[in-house]
Amino acid sequence: MSTIIGHTKQRKELCELAQTDKLPSALIFSGLNGIGKNLVARELARQLLCDVRGESPQGGCGTCRSCRLFETGTHPDIHNLQFGGEEGATVDDVRTTLEKMSLKPFMGGKKIAIFNDADEISIVGANTILKSLEEPRPDTYFILVLSNPSRLPTTILSRCQRFFFDRLTADEIREIIALKGIKEISEALTLLADGSAASLDSLQAQSEMWEDVRNVVERAWMGDQPCIARAAQEWGAAKTQLKERLAFLRTTIRQRLLATRTDPNAVAVWGVALQNALDAEYLTLERHVNPTLVILKTLQSCDNSLASTYRITPRSRPSLGEMLLDGR
Asked: Distance from the CA of 82 to the CA of which of 5, 96, 230, 326 falls in 20 to 30 A?
């Protein structure tokens, strides 16, 4: 049984609804990717299928036949579909699952379908699911796990009870890091994770990149123009690492802002730089603006000597996009 970190309030509410037989037949679990929504969905499913009748414990008893089958992945009354990724579930997969859900439970209890990355489902797939949500069989449950509810049709949203899951706290990320047995750069990973455990393994492998970004931002704060220019050139040319490096840049600047929030001059600089870092991700990744130029302007805005300018005219400060257009 996987250890679940965080989401105590949501898990308690779901457990009580299951124990009192008041759980809605259609649920949406939404929130940032990599925070444990699917683990909570599986915990709820295990409780619903547990052979302990009445007030079954959260996550099931763990010892009955149903719980053992669940853990081995062979329980006949739980169905999982993954919609994200290159090999995501098709409409035919949806139809097959719904046919199985329309049958009586094999073990005489309940039937559950968990749809992961449900916001990636096609319109045809969503319409196929809709009727099952409108007219669910008794003791049949659908759990849609997703990041962006707005990508689902309103007809689906209106038939599901929604549970929102917050991003993980820094302490919860540290706890997950400890469970994974990661000892090196654990604090750096906590900062970079930014509330999600989805990328911890890949972030660990990119520790050198993280240190490089931190060092360049520090040099930018001190006004080291040659260092800034060199970093912008190197980072902009490394296209395969651009997305990760920009994320590291944003996170580094955000942490500097939080760490210096009692210093008005520092707050002025890091506040501007953070907005520029956010704009940089959009401009380079979505609008395909020259990454070297965007990174250069973002790093230049980290210079502490600009604090007085930022504090005097914060409202008139041009956006990063405007700076790129007029050559400033």
From this structure: 5
What percentage of the chain reaches a pLDDT higher than 70?
91
The structure's pTM equals: 0.69
Contact 27, 133 (CB under 8 A): no
User: What pLDDT, in 10s, does the model give residues 204-245?
Assistant: 667 788 889 999 999 999 999 999 999 999 999 999 999 889
Q: Residue type at 83? A: F
Confirm whether 196 is domain-assigned: no
Instruction: Give the tokens for residue 276.
Output: 């520029």
If you search the block for the tokens 């965007």, which residue do you land on? 294
Distance CA 100, CA 75 (A): 13
Side chain identity, residue 13? E
Residue 94 located in a structural domain: yes
Q: Name the strands in the sheet holding 140-146, side by side, starting at the edge strand that comes first in the sequence.
A: 78-82, 111-116, 140-146, 26-31, 161-165
**Domain count across the chain:** 2
Angle among Cα 185, 186, 191 to the nearest 5 degrees reads 100
Residue with tokens 């105590």: 8
| 123 Cβ contact partners less than 8 Å away, ≥ 6 residues apart | 153
Residue after which a domain boundary falls, among 117, 147, 166: 166
Alpha-helical regions (H) of the chain: 8-19, 37-49, 65-72, 91-101, 123-134, 154-157, 170-180, 186-193, 200-205, 207-221, 225-237, 242-259, 264-285, 291-300, 307-312, 320-326
Task: Residue 111: give the domain boundaries.
Answer: 8-166
Among 166, 196, 229, where does a domain finish? 166
